[in-house]
Structure to design on (521 residues):
């Protein structure tokens, strides 16, 4: 079985937000909506202060609460692990948004533009999608790229044309995407070599994003 | 009463969900009270009270709740899509029960059939359970996902139903049944109080966003002290009294207090205590030659 997943090396991420910009460019999300965002987490007290940059978004969970609660079947989990939303079915009830422990879902009720609602840029006007108004939206793992790429025989996570935009854009190589169940794939090998965790594991959603925080050999 | 909105990008500590506001709370407020009243209309009818008026008021409440939901959804013209996922969605299940509840209650009002009246009471209980399960299934909201939410929401709905039944009985001169209804409300208020403390201690034990706990603590006085325990004392006095006047007035005051406090609780639960999970790291990453840091979970107790 294929289970597309992502690893993000927190040791490498420098918070440049290129992934956020790439995502917004690829998916034309409106102002205020970031399917891929990078948190700047500062913890501790002087002089023992630590800072971590943490990219977050839809975790494409193995057991997605959003899919369970969705009353319309608009949210579905594909066989390859991608959690999708059918904008034609969604009623915008927001139940999926309150069920998601990762705050990954967004509902906007009207078009908004970067320089004011009455001044859309030509690019915004051209890419505005009325189908995405008043329905739930979220990171798709760039499923259109994955689907188009795999149809051409390309491998997601290896061939950029079939790989999510955020992964392609990352300047530090912090993102690795691929099939978690492929033992010879880059993702599975990386996860085997590193110490990692998934966010909010206690909620039991089997999230598809792994955060690498150290090398495995240095762990006891 | 919905929480103030603001940009959420970049936040790490839990912030209040902004998808369900007072309109969503209205579904739980009116749906809970309405289904509770339909149940107590059946019980009252078994004791000899009139069924039609409380049943119609109960239905009107449930209908008002559904209108609130319809007003909340982004694509109201697609509302019937809500029926597509009965396998796992409690929202679909609630929507599936609704037409049977309405048809059954109207038929029971029309025919006066005892079996239909009880069938409607069972459907109302199922509907109320769907509402409670709907809140519990929201795994993104720590104050909602506790399994102890289910008995608390159901008991709150039943309290509101018994309270409305008392008010209807008081208003329609069905005073002979007030003492019975007072006794039911007393038992339910006691159970609701215990369910509240079980819920609160569960949240403390499992952990919750500090702001969610603060929002719940803020209603301890109006919801629990005044709406629950004072109500309980008044009901004990009413039941111990042989004066019909005392039974009437204390029953009415208790009913108003139990009803109002229940509505306040549900409104606060949806619009004030619904802080999301926020973001947390079980380990901070290793940087350079240093070691990784310990866990970070901002905004949690």
């Amino acid at each position: 079985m294929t289970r597309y997943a992502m690893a993000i090396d927190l040791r490498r991420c420098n918070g440049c937000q290129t992934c956020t910009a790439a995502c917004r460019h690829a998916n034309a999300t409106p102002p205020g909506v970031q399917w891929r965002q990078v948190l700047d987490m500062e913890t501790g007290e002087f002089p023992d202060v630590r800072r971590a940059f943490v990219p977050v978004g839809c975790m494409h969970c193995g057991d997605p609460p959003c899919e369970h609660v969705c009353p319309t079947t608009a949210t579905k989990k594909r066989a390859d692990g991608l959690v999708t939303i059918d904008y034609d079915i969604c009623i915008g009830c927001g139940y999926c948004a309150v069920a998601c422990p990762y705050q990954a879902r967004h509902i906007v009720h009207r078009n908004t533009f970067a320089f004011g609602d009455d001044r859309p840029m030509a690019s915004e006007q051209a890419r505005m999608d009325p189908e995405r108004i008043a329905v739930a939206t979220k990171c798709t793992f760039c499923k259109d790229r994955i689907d188009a790429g795999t149809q051409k025989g390309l491998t997601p996570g290896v061939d950029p044309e079939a790989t999510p935009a955020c992964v392609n854009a990352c300047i530090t190589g912090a993102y690795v995407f691929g099939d978690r169940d492929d033992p010879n794939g880059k993702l599975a090998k990386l996860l085997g070599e590193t110490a990692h965790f998934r966010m909010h594991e206690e909620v039991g959603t089997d999230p598809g994003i792994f955060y690498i925080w150290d090398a495995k050999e240095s762990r006891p | 009463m919905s929480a103030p909105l603001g940009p959420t990008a970049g936040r790490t500590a839990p912030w209040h969900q902004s998808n369900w506001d007072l309109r969503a709370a209205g579904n739980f407020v009116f749906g809970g009270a309405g289904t509770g009243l339909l149940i107590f209309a059946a019980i009252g009818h078994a004791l000899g009270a009139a069924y039609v008026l409380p049943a119609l008021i109960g239905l009107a409440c449930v209908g008002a709740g559904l209108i609130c939901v319809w007003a909340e959804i982004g694509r109201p013209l697609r509302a019937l899509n809500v029926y597509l996922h009965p396998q796992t969605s409690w929202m679909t299940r609630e929507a599936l029960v609704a037409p049977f509840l309405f048809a059954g209650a109207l038929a029971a009002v029309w025919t006066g059939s005892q079996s239909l009246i009880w069938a409607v009471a069972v459907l109302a209980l199922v509907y109320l359970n769907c509402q409670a399960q709907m809140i519990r299934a929201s795994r993104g909201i720590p104050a909602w996902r506790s399994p102890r939410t289910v008995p608390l929401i159901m008991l709150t709905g039943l309290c509101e139903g018994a309270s409305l039944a008392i008010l209807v009985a008081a208003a329609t001169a069905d005073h002979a049944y007030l003492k019975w209804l007072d006794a039911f409300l007393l038992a339910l208020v006691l159970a609701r109080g215990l369910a509240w403390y079980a819920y609160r201690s569960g949240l403390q034990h499992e952990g919750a966003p500090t702001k969610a706990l603060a929002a719940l603590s803020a209603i301890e006085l109006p919801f629990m002290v005044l709406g629950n325990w004072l109500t309980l004392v008044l009901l004990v006095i009413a039941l111990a009294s042989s004066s019909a006047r005392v039974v009437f007035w204390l029953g009415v005051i208790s009913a108003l207090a139990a009803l109002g406090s229940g509505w306040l609780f549900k409104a606060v639960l949806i619009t004030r205590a619904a802080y999301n999970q926020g973001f947390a790291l079980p380990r901070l990453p290793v940087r350079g030659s240093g070691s990784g840091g310990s866990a970070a979970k901002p905004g949690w107790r």
